[in-house]
Amino acid sequence: MRSFADIFRIPDLRKRVLITLGILSIYRVGVAIPIPGINAQALQALFAKQSNTLLGFLDVFSGGALSRFSIFSMGIMPYINASIIMSLLQGAHVIPALDRMAKEGETGRKRLNQITRYFTLFLGVVQSFGLTTLITRIPIAGDLPVVRDANAMFYFVTILTLTTGTIFVMWMGEQITELGIGNGTSLIIFTGIVDRLPSAVKNVVAEVFQLQQRSILEVALLVAFVLVVMGLVVWLETGQRKIPVQYAKRMVGRKMYGGASTFLPLKVDQSGVVAVIFAVSMLSVPVTAASFASHTGWAGFVNRWFNRQNGVYECVYFLLIIFFCFFYNSVQFNPDDVADNLKKWGGFVPGIRPGAPTAQYIQTILERITLGGAIAVATLAVLPDILRKFFNVPFYFGGTSLLILVGVALDTVGQLEAKLIMHHYEGFSKEGRVKGRWFNVGATR
Question: How far apart are CA 219 and CA 212, in angstroms?
């Protein structure tokens, strides 16, 4: 408690925390504001049927905004999709101009971010039109329509509102990243999942004491299983492969420098929750495209196979997570640059020649640990569907939610602890800093 109190003793850190909490509060208020012309009862009936489909899964990522059809129904997903496409174009070297911008430093990064924002606006218009069409045409039980009057004015107002809401959410995420604490995009998704956890616990309690559908022993085993999975997620998120690095002694003026031994930390799960979020975003694209022609044969094919109860969907989801884990590493981590920096500063890996052999050695280790980490992340991500299908376990206690919750929490706590240590305060743990974070002393990147 004293460590948390120290946060508010540092003016800069206190300001960042309050900005983060204030922006997240605004986001949660926007989630509760519905689009005009929506029948709330019919919408609830619709999402009661769609709870185990991709539409229900996307509702979890939107923090319940989609099931309310609020002004923030699309959440941050168009921005994530735009970022994915921009990263793919840069990684595949499709557009040379993007490669030149990426090499221009801070100026190039700002220009790329500006292009990503414009692309987000375009995707926001397309996805909002698809979502509006899907809501008005999807069949539901009963005679109550979801949209009272689906005329041209309703389409115009809804598309304009959803697109504006997406741009505003993107802006709030950027403000959190720049002025607050943590990654704004991840925190927005984090708050949406946390918001639904109390209702999930309430449902479990009701099943035990009111409906008597579960026994206390089953709930105890469920809680124990959740704790075990959470421990595995923490272990996965903080796991490292430490490559020893030795710095040669060198004379600078009259002083001797170097001769120190350190290590190069490579995270087992380098991408964190990004791969899971990217995979969900990519899976939402076919469903959005099918909403434009919901009565055609190929739209029925998409709706039939892109169902969370379908084994093909699970396999595609599993493989996409593995792909994005490797793709993220290829974009964010360059072994050649690391090897060149080590050689420039007189560092070397014992037993490995500097330069190209060092880069190849780092690349080999990175590929091996990434494969293991990607398989572990993908297994945890599909775990909710397996538990729900065979053991009737609530979805919210699954691996995808815990991956995001634990990953974002560790990253945010790591940044908070870095600020505390920078201002000569103790961290949250008396026995040491949060394991595996980027600010640990002795780590070389």
Answer: 12
H or E stretch at 371: helix 356-391
Distance CA 401, CA 393 (A): 14
Q: What is the pTM of this model?
A: 0.75
Domain coordinates of the chain in residue numbers? 1-180, 215-445
pLDDT in tens, 380-414: 888 777 776 766 665 555 566 777 788 788 888 88
Three-class SS state of 284: helix
Contacts of 174 (CB under 8 A, 6+ apart): 184
Q: What are phi and psi of 231, to 5 degrees?
A: -65, -40
The residues, any chain, with a CB within 8 Å of residue 48's CB and separated by 6 or more, are: none
Cβ proximity of 1 and 106 under 8 Å: no
Calculate the CA dihedral of residues 302, 308, 309, 312 and round it to 10 degrees. Answer: 60
**Architecture per CATH, 215-445:** Orthogonal Bundle (1.10)
Summarize pLDDT for 197-214 with one digit per residue, the tens: 777 778 777 877 777 777
